[in-house]
Every structure is written in structure tokens, then in C-alpha cells.
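#struct-help
A.M.: can someone run this one for me? Single chain, 913 residues.
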Amino acid sequence: MGSTTVNNTLIHPQVCVLLNKNMHFNGMFLSGNPLDYIVPVFMLQVILSVLISRAIHVTLRPLKQSKLVCNILAGLILGPSVLGRSKLYMEKMFAPKEMVVTATMSNMATTLFIFLICIKMDAAMLSRTAKETWRIGLSCMIIPFLFTVACTLSLDHFLPGIRGGKAFPIQFSIVSSLSYFIVIAHALDELNLLSSELGQLSISITMLNEIVSGFLVMVGVALGQKDKKDMLYAILSLCGLAAFVIFVIRPVLHWIIKRTPKGKPVHECYVIAILLWTLLLGVATDAVGASFSPAAMIMGFVIPDGPPLGATITEKCELFISEFFLPLFFVRIGYFTNLSAIQDWKELIAFGAVIAVGYLGRIVGSILVSLPFNMRKSTAILLSLILSLQGIVELLQGIRWKHQKLLDDQNFATLVMSIIILNAIITPTIEIYYKPEVKGFELPDSVTQRARSLEMTSSIGELRVITCVQEEDNVPSIISLLEALNPKEVSPICAYVIHLVALASQTVPTLAPYKNHKRMFSKPNGSDNIMRAFLNYAEHSRGPVQVQPFRMISPFKYMHQPICRLAEMIRTPLIIVPFFKSQDVHSTDGTLRIFNNNIQAFAKCTVGILVDRGLRTHFSLTSFSYNVAVIFLGGADDREALVFAARMSRHPSVAITLLRIHLRGNRTLEFEIERELDESLLRDFKAMNDSNACVVCHELVAHNSEEVMQALRFLANTYDLVVVGKRHGIAQFEEGLISWTQYPELGVIGDAIAAPDFYGGMMSALVLQHHSEENQSVCQGYSWKDRRERWLETKMGSIILCICTLMRKSKQVKSHQLYSTSALSLIDAPIVTSIPLWSILIKIICSLEGSPLHPSSLEVVLLSTIVQPQNLAPTQESESSGNEDFDDEKCFDKEQGEEKTTARESDNEEVIL
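D.P.: on it. C-alpha cells below:
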């Protein structure tokens, strides 16, 4: 029995066994021991590795430990460090003949694991983003390399267990300074940070590292040959394998996709063929002199992500490989790791110092490069921690070094322990301290993180809207909605149309501009018809409409973060997302509903959920008409709905019915503040549509939630759309009905309209939610300094406006000079976030004037002036342009054929239930 080296990549002990004696067990009744045979021992290794790793993962889950740490610990327990201290155990469980099978299966498992990770990635997108982050990537790679190589060479005399002369310290420094794509992608996927700003940055940097790593692999293979002729053959062989995959296998894969019926998975024979090709390419690259991992990565990257091919392979193979076969790799790691071999403490400290210096260099490099890029220091440190994560690739490299006698048992055990300790510290640190909602880069003053809303957006100027589309059925209703918003030269619309492609196999979310040109071997997708419809509408619309098409490829749990970042970047006041018809509370992980909930929670602007009942199957500009109902109870969300309707009211083909419901019995301070804001907006809406025959206002009075729900029956089944707010600023009303709602993201009224028993479930609705601090605990993601500034900002704005009100009452200055844009910019909408201080300041002011200590008319005047909506304030330009549209035009109800009454005629119409 001896040892051998094959192409400097994988070494197995040479074991000669008799097949009929050492492989098969004839039964314990024939005086045999099952642990003397290979197959029973291998099966026992699989069972123990899976059970122990799962038990450790359950135990350490409260400590936020990763699966990697748990798997390595399971391998150490099974190896000579713990259970292997028993000589009998080692002889039975880890005999050389059994380890041949374990090593073979573990290599196959790691090959397929790397292959599956790369399938989930969009190589084209990652390579594009890597071009933008190459400076950060080089800094995080070169500085750790310099630190590590300097420390290794200076402490060389303290490291007798490291052999290979001066060449190995350089090789070790290169491997230590690189951040491998497979390791970082797998760790971020487990942390659910792949779609975050920091996760995208880390993945882009690792793509650059992979390019450098691939080049170094070719150099290493060439230098490992004996003469120049073999060196040339080795390089040509690697290039030939890469060309074969790109120009032969890749077209075959697309041919398979074209042969697969739409909506159907790929046939199993194709899946098996692809897995066999991956293993065959791994054998080929290993025979050339490289390891098997480059072949698995190339094969994974060329497979189109998502259905039908990528999703099918991932669905059929991922669970079995990652949970059943991959633990065998860590059994092998535990077999080679013997903690009792650590005897020389000076060498332990020296080797530990080399590893720590490399991590320190990565932190220094991240902080240095953060200065010119306006990156926050905390983000730079977290980025360095993510790039310092190590995993399967480093462990594979460590096994190679051990087989090549470059590391002794002590230094290999030290390397494995450093990986455990590092990941055990970094993973929970990142999970605890990183908040995806906090921007990693310091924004200039012109790009703030303030909440944006329709109410605070001027009606003069471009309106930017993000619309999300999941399927072609959503297109007519969203185009009708854009047309109803009345695009004009003074108020054009820019729609950012995002096609949502939900892929379970896609690990890294991709939000990229949609390009309509066809490329060689381009993967067919369902975005062509959707984008063609929107672009065609923008070209022939009656007003200026610009469409910016995007394609979002990601699982639903990751989709919201890129969309919210896009909303902040373009400063849009409105995001419209579809309410998925197929969503079910009991669906897999509730992912379809989680997307809507995440958008509502994290978007710093108004979010509208469009419940489309498919009543509009096509869109026509020549015969366009839109009948809209607006339900108004009060509150910030309902005000957003009213402002949305105000934009539509100027369209000559849009008819609007406003249903104002008064709910009696609520006289708290917060209610009075909200009521005055509501009345101010309603007065402006009625004044703006005073002569508009297409706008009708009805007012109802309700005393409880039951009467409110009865008032909804006032709506006839003749409306194309019902616009309503999610919340209504009336706690008593919502508390009584919230427990009965099936879809809380729609609110009480929206859920009732979307119910199947409301006119047969055939009425479409748009549920709007104004962003507020209640949506998301944003302050928990800010530093103490940020929270203090936000607190002072709100409170100082309140104090300044109270002083301005006193000056206004004393008639020292004009009111329009007091409430200027500079003063209003100090206030964070909604104003009610500072209600307690409002009450105190108002009472003080009232007491100074000799008024009783209760909310007075001063409070009403103050609040109504503060939040005067800019988009409803009539200007000469808007009035002139608006009146031209309605000259000699009348709006008729299509169903009844009667001319509708104007808003002025129905102002005083009140129905008491």
C-alpha cells in the first residue's frame, strides 16, 4: 500500500482488494462483520455525516452559524480529532480501502455542487458589473497579497511545516488573497443578501477574482509541465475545452430549449446527459493538469438560467447533491484533520499571524478604496468581511497542498480551524449588523432618502412611474392606467416597465435593461411581446410617454431590493405592482405575496397594488374610455388615491366618481389633524373640477364599520377601476375588520373589493399606500448620528412652522412667504410623526395668546398650510391647458346614456345610513 500523485491534483492511496471478499457482505449469520466491507462502511459514513451535520445545524442555529461551519464540525467529530481517537473506530470507519470510495464520491459531489451554483448565476450580467467594480476588486486583492507574502517570507524560519521553498509562500498568498465566486455566492445565498447592494458588489468583485484565478490556473498548468512542448499542449488543451463548451455544447443546449414545449420541464434524458457531460469535462481538465472545478464552472455558466433547462436541473439535483452527497466531502476533510497534531505553538502562532495579516490587508484595502467612491466605512468593513469568507474552494486547495507535502498535519489542521473560526465570526456579524435598506454609499444632497409621494409631487413636470408586469394579461390594464394619467407636454410620463421573471434556480437577482435585438444563441424569453406592447403605446400615445423597459430575473424573495434601489435612484413617487391572480396563502413559502409585502415595506414612495380582473383584454387609443371610482374615508393613503384621481380628472375620456364616506364617533387629536388635511385636499379637488362634467362627488355618513361596508354597495358594477387607500387613518374602523381580511396588503376596503362575493369578484382595484415610518422600522438601520439628525430635522421643522404661524397671526409677513419651499423641506412626510410635540407646542402658543389649553383653530390653520399639496394648486399654465381639453366636450355614462352631474351640483349630496 502506498501513495501516488495524479497530475498534482488528486492523490489516493493504492489499495489492492479482492472484489468478492472486501466489497460485498454476505450476511452476519455467516460469521461476518459488516464493517469489514466497503459498501456498508460507505453507507454508514453517509448516514452519520448527514445526521451529525443536521444536529449541529439545529443546535447552532440560534447563534446564526452557517451550514459550512456545521458540516466541517461534523467532519471533525467523525475524524481522528474526536471519535477517531479510538483505534478500533479508525480501523473500521476510515480504512484506506473505504476512503477510496469516499474520496471519489466527495469529488463528484463538489463538482456537481459547483456546477449547480454557477447555473443560478447570470454570467453576462456579472461580467458587466465586474467592469464597474474592477478598482475595488483589485484593491481588495493586491493589498492582501502584499501583506500575506511579506508576512510569510518574514516568518519563514518559524514555519518548518511549510515546504516548497520560496515558491509556495507566493502560491499560498495568491490563494489567500483571492475571493472565490463559488464561496461568496453560496454564503450570500444562505444569508439572503444576494439582492442587496453589498451582495451585488461582492459578487461582482469575485467575478474579477475568478478571471484572475482562471489565468493563474493556466499559468500553473503550463509551469507544471516538463518542457516547452508539453506546456504548449497543456495551454491549447484548456483553450480547446473552453471553446468546445462555448461553440458546441452551448448551441446544443439552446436547441434543447427550443425543442421543449412552453411551460414544460426538460426531458430527464437531457438532464442526465448534461450531468454526464459535466463530469466528463471535469475528468478532461483534471487529466490536462487543472482541477475539475474550472470545467464545472464553465459548464454551469453556459447553461441558460431559469426554465426550462436551468430550473429543471436545479430542481431535480440540488437537494440530493447538497444535502446527501456534499457532507461526504466534509467527512474527507475531517479524515485529514487531526487537531492532536498541533504541538508546536510557535509555528501555530506564526501561521495564524500569516492568515490574520491577510484578513487585515483585505480590510485595509476595502477602507482605502472606499474613500474615492464615497463608500461608508461600515459598508467597507462589511465588504471586507464578506470577501474574507472561505469555503469549499480553500478546503480543496488545502487537501492538494497536503497531498503534495507542502503542508504538514499541524498546518493543515490550523488552516481548517482558521476557516471554522473565521466563518463562525463573520457570518453572524454580517447578519446582525448589515441592514440592506441602508445605502452603502453616501449620497449627495440632491439625492436624499426622503419618502416621496404623489401628494408632494408637482403636477407640472415629468411623472416617473415604475410598473411591474408578471404576465401578458397585465399589459392592457397597466397601459390603460398610464393613459388615464393624462400625459401632456407640461406633465409627461416616464414609465419604467419591469417584467418580473420568477426563477427558483436564479440565485443572483438580475435587473437589467431590456434589449430588443437578437444575439447569437440568445435564449428565448417571454418579455418580447410585453415590451413591444408598451413601446408601441409610447410611440402612438396622445401625449408624451417614454418607456424604459427592464427585465427582472430573480426569486420573488429577492426582487424588492433592486426595484426599491431603482426607485430611489430615479426618485419616482409611485410604484405599481400587480396583484397576482394565482397567489395563494398556502403556496410555496408564500413567495408571490411576499414580493408585494416587501415592496410595501421597503419602498420609500407610494406603492400601488393593481388588482386586475382581466376586464380589459386589449387597449385602443381611438376608443379609449375609463370609468373610475374613488373611495375616500380619510388618511394619508386615501389622499394619495385622491391625488391620483386628480391627475386622471383632466383626461377628456375619463369619468370619475368620488365616494366620500364620513365615519362618526372619532374625535382624537390625530383624527382632527388628518381630517383637516383631508378636507383641504377635497376642497382643492372640487375646485379644480368645478366645471368638469366627468367628475361626480357623493358623500355618505357611516357610524361603524358595518355601515362602511354597506356603503361600498353604493358602487355599481360599471366601473373599470376602483381607487382606494390601504389605510384610512381610523384605528377603530380598521381594528374591527383587519382580522377578517384575507389579503392584509390590500387593506380592509381593498380586500373587500377583491373578494369573490363583491360583484362576483369582477371589479378591478388599485390600492395605494403612502410611505411612512410605520411601513418599515427604518431607524433600526441608521446609525445613532443619522437617527439624531432625522429627529432634530422633524422637530426643528415643527418649531419653525409654529413660529411662522405666530408671525402670520400677527400679520408681520405674508403667508406665502412663510411657507416657502425651504421651510417645507425641513419636514418629513407624513407630518403626524411628530404629533406629541405638535400638541405641546400648540398648547404653549395658545396659552401665550390667552386661549384655552385644547386644540384650537390655530392647529387647523397650521396643519392645513403645512401640507398644502403642490400638485393640486392651480396655476395659470395648468388651468389654461386643462380648460382647453374640456371646451365643447361632454362626458356621458356609457351604460345609462345620461349626462353626469358636475362636482358643484353634488357637493351637498349627503346620504345618512
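A.M.: thanks! The longest strand covers residues 493-502.
D.P.: also worth noting: The chain has four domains: 92-433, 448-612, 625-665+689-772+869-899, 785-828+830-866.
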